[in-house]
């Protein structure tokens, strides 16, 4: 058996190939695993758990099928889907994780994070993050009329497609001191995170930092089993 980690799928109606790849990943690879950890930014934009879109329903149903089949499903919020809430989690049969979560499996121990809080050199972003994660701001946003939120999400997606802001170059990398501090605070020698879209395995003086990739032309999955960690990628075909 194995435990799988993915992040930064940025599911959006404009990129149906990624949703298709995710649905087949769930019914195939993930259903043969013990646990699936989704470390944030599953969606390019999440306007609230009352999202009536077909894509939102399809993804939630597929996640529910997975958890019903006995696979443990864990989800962290990212910076783009920070409005993922209790209703979504319940419908999917998932467990919501905090921003810093320790995973233990087969004698391995790792800290799992989305990773945006580690990009401390991006002052503007950290200011936005503090605002966006403020419960009053989140409450106000999630209580806007659905139509307003749908318009907001469309604008966000259009902006992000236009700016290509999902490209790694547009996202600042993690700060080494922030990484060392969070690993030390949690007493781990392995950190797994996404967000930066720079999939790689970095040896550290005190262990390792494993970075998941975003799903675009390639999909990325980190597999943990008895033999250790394995960061894998596969081609996402845009053909139907
Ligand atoms: Mn992110």
Written overview of the protein:
With 240 residues, the chain is of the alpha/beta class. Helices cover 34% and strands 24% of the residues. It contains 7 helices and 11 strands. The chain has helices at 16-27, 54-68, 86-92, 123-132, 135-142, 146-163, 176-186, and strands at 3-6, 35-39, 72-76, 95-96, 101-105, 108-113, 190-193, 200-204, 207-211, 218-225, 228-235. The strands form 2 sheets. Strands 4-3-2-1-10-11 form a 6-stranded mixed beta sheet, with helices on one face. The protein has a 5-stranded mixed beta sheet with strand order 5-6-7-9-8, with helices on one face. The structure holds manganese (II) ion (MN). Manganese (II) ion binds next to loops.
Give a short synopsis of this structure.
With 240 residues, the chain is of the alpha/beta class. It has helices at 16-27, 54-68, 86-92, 123-132, 135-142, 146-163, 176-186, and strands spanning 3-6, 35-39, 72-76, 95-96, 101-105, 108-113, 190-193, 200-204, 207-211, 218-225, 228-235. The chain contains 7 helices and 11 strands.
CATH architectural arrangement of the domain at 3-97 and 123-165 and 212-235: 4-Layer Sandwich
Task: Write out the distinct hetero groups bound to the structure.
Answer: manganese (II) ion
Remind me, CATH topology of the domain at 3-97 and 123-165 and 212-235? Purple Acid Phosphatase, chain A, domain 2
The strand order across the widest sheet is: 4-3-2-1-10-11
Computed CA radius of gyration, to the nearest angstrom: 17 Å
| Uncertain parts | none
Q: Count all strands and give the number.
A: 11
Helix content: 25-40%
What is the class of the domain at 3-97 and 123-165 and 212-235 in the CATH system?
Alpha Beta
Shape: globular
Global structural class: alpha/beta
Give the N-terminus to C-terminus distance in angstroms: 31 Å
Taken as a percent bin, the fraction of beta residues is: 15-25%
Element-by-element helix/strand order? EHEHEHEEEHHHHEEEEE
**SS field, number of helical segments:** 7
Quick check: average pLDDT? 93
């Amino acid at each position: 058996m194995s435990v799988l980690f993915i992040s930064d799928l940025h599911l959006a109606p404009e990129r149906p190939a990624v949703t298709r790849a995710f649905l087949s990943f769930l019914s195939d690879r993930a259903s043969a695993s013990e646990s699936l950890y989704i470390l944030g930014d599953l969606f390019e934009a999440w306007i609230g758990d009352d999202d009536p879109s077909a894509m939102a329903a399809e993804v939630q149903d597929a996640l529910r099928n997975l958890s019903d089949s006995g696979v443990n499903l864990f989800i962290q919020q990212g910076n783009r889907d920070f409005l993922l809430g209790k209703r979504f989690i319940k419908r999917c049969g998932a467990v919501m994780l905090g921003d810093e979560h320790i995973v233990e499996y087969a004698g391995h121990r790792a800290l799992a994070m989305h990773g945006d809080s580690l990009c401390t050199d991006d002052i503007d972003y950290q200011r936005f993050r503090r605002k966006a994660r403020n419960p009053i701001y989140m409450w106000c946003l999630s209580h806007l009329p659905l139509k307003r939120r749908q318009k907001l999400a469309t604008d966000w997606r259009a902006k992000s497609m236009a700016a290509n802001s999902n490209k790694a170059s547009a996202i600042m990398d993690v700060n080494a001191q922030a990484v060392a501090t969070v690993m030390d605070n949690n007493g781990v020698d392995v950190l797994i995170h996404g967000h930066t879209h720079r999939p790689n395995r970095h040896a550290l003086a005190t262990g390792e930092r494993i970075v998941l990739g975003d799903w675009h032309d390639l999909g990325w999955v980190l597999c943990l089993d008895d033999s250790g960690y394995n960061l894998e990628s596969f081609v996402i075909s845009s053909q139907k």
